[in-house]
Specification:
Elements: H1 8-36, H2 49-54
Length: 56
């Protein structure tokens, strides 16, 4: 199997694309889901739903 070598410019571009992808993912999670749609606990509250509603 051949080893792929990247030039300095290609490595820089790859690192930039990775950073851009992470920042877009953070924007999507932080701004859109939490602030706009207010889905703060979309999946974290599934397991304890019976405890909060049926405990009284």
């Amino acid at each position: 199997m051949e080893r792929i070598t990247l030039s300095h410019g290609q490595r820089s571009r790859l690192a930039g694309c990775f950073a851009l992808g992470v920042s877009i993912g953070g924007f999507f999670d932080g701004i859109l889901l939490h602030q706009v749609l207010q889905w703060h606990h979309l999946l974290s509250g599934i397991g304890d739903r019976g405890l909060t509603y049926g405990s009284r």
